[in-house]
Give the backbone structure.
Amino acid sequence: MSTESAVRIATLLPDLLGTYGDRGNATVLAARLHWRGLAAEILEVPSDSPVPLGCDIYLLGGGEDVAQAEATRLLRASAFPAVAGHGSTVFAVCAGLQILGTTTVDASGAHQEGLGLLDLATRPGRHRSIGEVTGCADPALGLTDSVLTGFENHAGITERGPGTRPLARVTTGTGNGDGTEGAVHGRIFATYLHGPVLARNPALADHLLRTATGIELAPVRLPDLAALRRDVVTAAKGTWRRRIRSALLPSAWHTPGVTARDRRSRPL
Amino acid sequence: MTATLERAQRSETGKPDMRRSIRTRFAVGAGRFVAWLSRIAGFGGHVIGGRIALLLHPGCLAELACGRRIVLVSGTNGKTTTTAMLTAALRAEGPVASNDTGANMLDGLTWVLATDPAPTVVVEIDELYLPIAVQRVHPVAVVLGNLSRDQLDRAGELRDTARRLRALADSFPALRIVANCEDPYVAFIAAAFPRVVWVSVGSGWDGDTGNCPACGHRLAKRSPLHWACARCRTERPDPEWRLTLEDPDTMLRTPEEQPVPLRPVLPGRVNEQNAAMAVAAARLLGVPVERAAAAANRVHDIAGRYRTIRTERHTARMILAKNPAGWAATLEILAANPAPVIISINANEADGRDTSWLYDVPFERLAGHTVLATGARAADLGVRLSYAGIAHGTEPDPLAALTALEPGPVYLVSDYSGFAELRRRTGDGSR
């Protein structure tokens, strides 16, 4: 990529895949380029606009099941599968991860073909995984800080095929469901982590920028970041205590909608 | 509805306690005792009292509700204010029981019904608990202001919530809904009911209204006050009531096109919208429009929200904002005054533990204010502010942050648990 022109970051379908604050990933990438004196441009691509060609980074966020099905349909018919990973870098979160895979079966049992950009398939898990996740990033990525943290909120269990490496090994939380988290194949990266994940893990953000631009980036210091990374790792450790406490509370006090068991026990 | 009204009037003459079963009286008595213990121990009593009663006798809620005229106020934002305004409007006509403490789950509802025998009850209820509350207490009406993303870690998907609420129409076709027609999710729910009072409150935060609640197709907007789905033909219902900006006042137009001025004491456009919903609901329950509007306009303190706390050197106006929609309204209020802003984010269980939503709030608009990031998750907020390009200080304790500021007026914006903590620490916890 040339350094003179602005780095173009496309946020795909924010109206469908913008439920969990993942637009923050675009904000983070653009800001980290600006801080190093590089120009960046964010393009929001709503569902009634064509996917622009020639962007340096394409971002996909998390969304609800109905929105995900609609987004998959739109993206399959668009130019995105042809340009993804070929000269461009792709970073997908949650529903975005599932869309990049080969197939997805959602909670209602509906079966949908994905974009097939990553060798992975998703089926519904027994309960929704909600909470802090910590993981250890794949050493092959060479991140400057290998601890990954984020917040997961999904019902899918994802199985990777042999052509796809995981992004991280999970130390707390669910991730893909087999002890790994996310997927990487060439310039295509995917994860279940929100937070937004790039705000929480600047080393991963810089790795994406390095992949997209080919430029070695000088480190930047953010005032609250060390405290944030310490806080979330502590919060992840408290997850079990909370789970035990909520299991002991009578169901009438329980927040509905958290687990599949809750869903079944609800009268509607 | 007239049958319900008559029943309600009959119960006004007899003491409702007389008809309670032994089991319910025992459960409520035990609840009262624990609530009393909790209060002398320095905690609130509204939630624990209701919890104990429900635990001892889950059926007590249905029994306590029997024969009373109940209105449930729900939605993501503005429940507490709309409830306070509707309660004020109905109190012009007679006694009303209400949960003015913001305890908005089944336990809070139980406690209101157990402790206040008034024949009319106006209660705010968490949108996730609305289906079960409707089944237990058989309300005459439900007021639905809006539905947007909030606490996704406990609520799951917004569409799921909407579908569960919509399914209520099968079992409760006579339920009256007072609904905001600008919100596609509210419209999706209310349209399933045969009798709906549609209110147009003008546009609000629209981050969750991009695609059709029914089919997921992108919604087309011909104007700010229009939305329609090209695929499944769902579109914005025609309102009977309209909130309009007319010089110099905001007017509420009744179904008969009568203009009623709305000038709430509470700040911001969002409170005019809450007042419009409350007035439309009050009229449905038989209160004349002018009286309802006057009562709603006068509401000035809702469980400490918008309250000003005074210390020796500062006057701090407290504002509750806990999700992107609430923050959109709050940023509008903050823009009117260059005072410093202290933001507190705790992200406790009651707030939702996921702080991702902070990136859906355009904090860039705080440029020009002195901003302090506080609360248990001050660091999350601080990082967010850095990415928004807002210079700020970080101090976990909001009151310590307050003392660090120059004397003068300050805005103190907090999420739910931070707000409760601030009220307690500033000597307002007993209410």
In short: The longest helix of chain A spans residues 225-237. The first strand of chain A starts at residue 7 and ends at 12. Confidence is low (pLDDT under 50) at residues 249-268 of chain A.
